[in-house]
Amino acid sequence: MRSKAIGALAGTALLATLTAGCGGGASADDSGTVTVTVGYQSRTINTVTAGTLLRSLGYFEEELRGRGERDGVTYKVKWQDYATGAPITAQMTAGKIDIGSMGDFPLLINAARGTQLNRPTRLVSVTGYNLAGGLNTVVTAPDSKLDSLSDLRGKKVSTSVGSAADGTLVRALQQAGIDPEKDIRKLNQQPAVGASALQAGSADALSQFVAWPGLLAFQGRAKALYDGAELKLPTFHGVTVRQDFAKKRSAVVEDFLRAQGRATDYLHEHPVAASESVAKATGLPAEVVHLYNGSQGIATFDTTLKPALIAALKKDVPVLRSAKLVGDVDVDGFVDDSYIKRVFGSGYAKALAAGPPARRGGEVWLKGKDTTTAFATSAELLRYVAAHRAAVRTAYVPDASTGTLWFADRAVWVSDGDELRPYVTGSAARADATAHPGARTVSYSTALDLARAAS
């Protein structure tokens, strides 16, 4: 969402009545203050434009302050931070959270629970997405002898059941001819617990969502076993609202989406500053945040409800249904684009049709710099890093097959004549080397030496 588009209708929506209506919704206290409660996941960093970054920028409070001055109402925003989407859904269906953000699979559970408990919710915008599914990754210990998904047969795999990462695991195993219910021992664990289990050896692999795989790889505590983008199925995070709240306070929902759009603009225009801000708020390394949220990051940030994402949501329903986590979900009834359309105005159709930026050759973040340097090819990036090794904070390269961005020093490289191709997983790199006579996998340090020698 661009600033000009989101500002087109600023101030035009009318505030809904302050008296308590049927079905709840934020109401005024004795002092006339209206509290809006927002549930978010600070460390699920593809939701930052509706959570961590938005909160730090203060844009939602600013929008509501302007509305309050016009309408004679005082607004207060209450932010509640959770590790996953499940507790946000529980609080929403209890009428205690008005607006929440979570991943695609939790969104479907949100829709199902809302319908079941007669507290319907609606999907009103998207935060970050990846059209191929690269936001979820299966990792294993750095010294593990597991080389591919087929090696997981009979192994213990940690994931969060009902999450998008669990969906990736189920689908990937099925494609590999492995029954996810019978052929592995699935451990239903929170991400942090699963990360500890992997390190302790009580789990053989971990399937998780952003930012856990990147964090563990960056820390040297894991290596990628499966890149979720190999599924070529979109995954995303979005914003859900309670229907009763949205009907009662539609102008507040639009103010939230307007603020989210401004936060999205800020992230696009100041990617390094945004990464540093999120890192400070979450305790995550800024390098990890930037892997997902940077200018060439794994996630694309765009608030529009794209048809490809909604179609993917419909394909997710059978996976959750087979796990007995939902029954039938009316996805079309759950998606409500009326609010985001009013915020965008006439610019919505153009924004909806826009796709992710074209893939480039990666970027380098130098120490002490508040910008990164982009490269057309991974070979150019390697030559630059080889010549500036001491000054490099981190370098990122896109997987040669899936396009998933990864840390250059954690990627598996293939040397093929004059070409150097990076991959997120060793299995993908070995498949490339096998398919090209004379090609071979090489270490990062060797790739740097080869790149410098070729310059």
Automatic annotation (TrEMBL):
UniProt xrefs under InterPro entries: SsuA/THI5
Endpoints of the signal sequence: 1-28
Occurrences of domain SsuA/THI5-like (ranges): 88-274
Key words, A-Z: Signal
Descriptive protein name: ABC transporter substrate-binding protein
The organism of origin for this protein: Streptomyces poriferorum
